[in-house]
Write a structure and sequence with these properties.
Length: 694
């Protein structure tokens, strides 16, 4: 007669989706005349589907005529006696008979043991005593959260007799099929998949909500019960507040190192907390540090933002400070990685998330243009933008070859590129060829003339070979390289050419890139929209802070750049004269209020949030004093520094007394003072053009 167990088994089998490779491996072992391996170790975090997979293994084995014995380590103590007693019960034989002996009498069989992370005290006994006693007709599957201990692989005997399977999330398509099977509305599937990352437990929990609540539509912040269940599944109980804070910090950032964890938690030594994180089953290790499973990360951050938004904002601020420092201290690939980490902080913002592929590698190192690349890149442009644009790309790659960055695939072939053209280096005949560059150059001439040493960049071509300017891993790395360019010394303005400006409007507005419709252009009958940013008005550091404030704000669009006076585009001669005046007025802040240097780029960056006039006066005085001290650190310039210091910074009663303090003739003192003022002007001019790294 049909059994209820058969109905249950059929229902579970019908609902099971995915794991094709794992099932194929298991089926191949069943079909072989001689088992190709005798032990299969399955591991993955809680809720990834290990138990469901064992159920499928069991059904396949029964269909092949093999006996199946199934144990769960939660049901017995981790001792040899308890293990054998539980197995004897599953065998249904004489409890006094040794389990290995009883199995040997049953013929072909499958031994399934679930929740094996609880059997750590038994690993040596299983490996060295119990499993070797089993007959060759028995396949054993051990499933748990932890990967195999090194001793399994170190044993020459077991190396060839075992296989290891790591269970990950389902693919997006498998997740979509599961949701359809559970009658989740198709229009809700993208939001569910974004939140769950096709993680089996999360998919099941969300689908349960649809079963329980007619008319339900999933939104992570409105589903605290889902978040709570996920947290309970992953976290159990943290040992203390510091451990909970470590988990929350680990969930916020892309990859956690011990140094970063200490900085986020403001502790001198985070070693023990880091080691605790490292031992959690849902935290994975990579060369760059630790990171939690996607669903654990998602659950933690959603819960933290809802439960304690103030702590979330503080963690976010500390992470930004860390990454900003790394940006200044690193170059090349390491700087690119720091930028990727900084951008990752914005992954949950609805204005950013749809436009970035977070799976793109932050360590993908762009390459320079090679002569052999040109025809490939030109063909890319022609495929997506037409022949006339392709000829313009060819023209600029010849005129400014150093402007191109090529992104290569694993076969070292060009998979995309960007060309960042220097407008100030474009000759009149160049501008006559390209309407985009001509319009940008005209805009700068009329509205923001470049000073000596300043540059303007046009992201004229940026595309992936297959997807053009659509969202893709290549496009994401292109954006990271755009941000790297923002830190170029002397950068005054950037422009961006878009084939679909409307599509990029939300994320470009979030990134404070202004739509500049007056610069839109056509090439070969195709229209292009233009965005831009004035880096003299909102410098790179202020821009990073703006993005950080927008990320943690309830309404990001309400957070606007700090109002700043219009930046004064001073010539070098004007600038040097104003520095001399500022030094003479150093002790008179009321007079400094009238100095045009208050509207300079360097003062704006130094003042930061101190946007009032008093804040900018204080910033100017700080710059003058720092430049004087910098000059004093040089043995050759120390005498110049002392002359300026005793004349303007901490002035003597008269210049004659200043000369006496320096113990030099008055004529020598005057020469030193003049040289010192000129040198301070040079130091500050370099800061004005290139920022504080210069």
């Amino acid at each position: 007669m049909p059994r209820l167990a058969d109905r249950l088994s059929a229902a579970r089998h019908n609902r099971f989706i995915g794991r094709a490779a794992e099932l194929a491996l298991f089926q191949s072992a069943l079909d072989a005349d001689e088992l190709p391996f005798y032990l299969l170790l399955v591991h993955g975090p809680g809720g990834v589907g290990k138990t469901s997979l064992l159920g499928q293994f069991s059904q396949l084995a029964e269909q092949a005529g093999a006996a199946v014995w199934r144990l769960d380590a939660r049901n017995f103590e981790p001792t040899p006696a308890a293990f054998q007693a539980s197995l004897a019960q599953a065998l249904g034989g004489d409890p006094a008979q040794p389990a290995a002996e009883a199995i040997a009498q049953r013929g072909r069989g499958l031994l399934l043991v679930d929740t094996c992370e609880l059997l750590a005290p038994l690993e040596g006994w299983l490996r060295d005593q119990f499993l070797p006693q089993l007959p060759e007709r028995v396949l054993t599957v051990l499933a748990g959260r932890l990967p195999p201990a090194p001793a399994w692989r170190a044993d020459p005997g077991w190396q060839s007799l075992m296989r290891s399977l790591t269970l990950r999330n389902l693919t997006p398509e498998e997740g979509r099929r599961y949701l359809a099977q559970r009658n989740v509305p198709a229009e809700d599937a993208p939001a569910v998949l974004d939140f769950t990352h096709s993680y089996p437990l999360a998919l099941s929990l969300v689908a349960d909500l649809y079963d329980q609540r007619p008319g339900f539509h999933f939104k992570p912040l409105e589903a605290p019960d889902v978040v709570k269940l996920l947290l309970e599944q992953f976290l159990q109980r943290a040992p203390g507040p510091a451990h909970r804070a470590a988990l929350e910090a680990c969930a916020l950032v892309r990859v956690t190192t011990e140094e970063l964890l200490a900085e986020l938690l403001t502790v001198a030594d985070a070693h023990d907390l880091f080691q605790w994180l490292r031992e959690l089953t849902f935290v994975e290790t990579r060369p760059g540090g630790l990171f939690p499973h996607d669903v654990a990360r998602e659950a933690l951050t959603v819960d933290l933002r809802w439960r304690n938004p103030g702590w979330y904002a503080e963690l976010h601020r500390r992470a930004r400070v860390h990454y900003t420092r790394r940006l200044h201290e690193s170059r090349g690939a390491e700087q690119q990685l720091a930028l990727f980490d900084f951008v990752y902080l914005h992954r949950d913002n609805p204005a950013v998330r749809p436009f970035f592929e977070w799976q793109a590698s932050g360590r993908t190192v762009p390459d320079r243009l090679r002569a052999s690349d040109v025809e490939t890149l030109v063909a890319m442009v022609e495929r997506h933008e037409g022949l006339e644009s392709a000829e313009l790309a060819r023209y600029w790659l010849a005129r400014q070859p150093e402007s191109a960055i090529v992104f290569r695939d694993s076969a070292d072939l060009a998979a995309g590129f960007m060309a960042t053209l220097a407008i100030e280096r474009a000759a009149p005949q160049d501008l006559a060829v390209d309407p985009a560059m001509a319009a940008a150059a005209d805009f700068l001439r009329r509205n923001a003339p470049l000073r000596s040493g300043e540059t303007a960049a046009y992201f004229r071509f940026w595309l992936a070979a297959d997807t053009h300017q659509a969202v893709s891993p290549i496009q994401s790395v292109i954006f990271i390289n755009m941000v790297r360019h923002y830190f170029t010394p002397g950068l005054a303005h950037t422009f961006y050419a878009c084939t679909d400006p409307h599509f990029w409007q939300p994320v470009f507005a979030y990134a404070d890139l202004a739509r500049m419709e007056e610069l839109d252009f056509q090439v070969g009958g195709r229209s292009f929209g233009v965005y831009g940013h004035d880096w003299r008005a909102t410098p790179a550091l202020a821009w990073l802070e703006l993005l950080g404030q927008r990320e943690i704000a309830a309404s990001p669009e309400a957070v606007r750049p700090s109002p700043m006076p219009a930046v004064a585009a001073l010539s070098q001669a004007e600038f040097m004269g104003l520095v001399e005046n500022a030094l003479r007025d150093y002790t008179r802040p009321d007079v400094l209020r009238g100095n045009a240097l208050l509207r300079s780029r360097m003062v704006g960056e130094r003042a930061g949030r101190e946007i009032g006039e008093a804040g900018r006066v204080a910033a100017l005085r700080s710059l003058l004093k720092d430049a004087t001290e910098q000059m004093g650190a040089s043995p050759k310039e120390n005498k110049f520094s002392r002359a300026v210091y005793h004349t303007y910074i901490q002035p003597a009663a008269t210049q004659e007394q200043a000369a006496e303090l320096l113990d030099v003739p008055f004529s020598s003192y005057r020469r030193h003072l003049k040289s010192g003022m000129a040198r301070i002007g040079e130091i500050l001019w370099q800061i004005e053009l290139g920022g504080f790294d210069n």
